[in-house]
Amino acid sequence: MSGGPAPHGVARLGGLWLGVFLDAQGRVARVAVSVNALAPAPDETADPQALRVVRCLESWEQHPAGPARLPRAPAATPFQACLRDALLELQPGQTVSYGALARRLGTSPRAVGAGCRANPLPLLVPCHRVVGLRGSGGYAGARQGHLTQFKAWLLEREQRASAPRGPSP
Q1: Catalytic: 127?
Q2: Torsion region of 62: left, alpha or beta (phi above 0 gives left; psi -120 to 50 gives alpha)
Q3: 35 and 1 Cβ atoms separated by less than 8 Å
Q4: Looking at 56, 82, 116, 127, which residue is catalytic?
Q5: Predicted TM-score (pTM) above 0.85
Q6: Residue 79: phi, psi to the nearest 5?
């Protein structure tokens, strides 16, 4: 994330940093995931919308559906819009394979993977819920390392939170 503008806000989740970038209308345009510490733009730290987004992302473990309700900038392409709609239908703890989602959208698993990789709004548009047939698959273009560990962490937390609970003693 070096060389570009500083994010409007920064959240910390699952050991990684999430840089929040807003568009001119105050909608979330991008969430950058980084293993390196991020600092918000000094003149933007008091932006109430950025603070709202940061709080929502930081409370993801308690409310994994919360980020999906944040105002989002429009998708870049018609395919991204279609994929976004399908991803937003997935509930926390629910996963779908690249192939199954591709069949539903009338496209290929590679196109779904490329669309998920290009998703500028992780957590707001839950691309982490799309998995491979033999494992969780990649995340944000990575096939291993911190980002795939983050995907596994997200999925594990969602599965645990959505598991049916037995009766209280």
Answers
A1: yes
A2: alpha
A3: no
A4: 127
A5: yes
A6: -65, -45
DSSP per residue, the chain: -TTSPPPSEEEEETTEEEEEEE-TTS-EEEEEEESS-----GGGTT-HHHHHHHHHHHTTTT-TTGGGGS-BPPPSSHHHHHHHHHHHHSPTT--EEHHHHHHHHTS-HHHHHHHHHT-S-TTTS-GGGEEBTTB---BTTBSSSHHHHHHHHHHHHHHHHHSPP----
- pLDDT tens-digit series, residues 21-32: 999 999 999 999
- Mean per-residue pLDDT, 57-84: 95
Cα distance between residue 133 and residue 142, in whole Å? 17
**Close Cβ partners of 145 (under 8 Å, ≥ 6 residues apart):** none
Per residue in 92-113, pLDDT (tens digit) is: 999 999 999 999 999 999 999 9
CA distance 74 to 22: 12
Q: Please check the confidence at residue 157 and state whether its pLDDT lies above 80.
A: yes
Instruction: Please provide the size of the chain in residues.
Output: 169
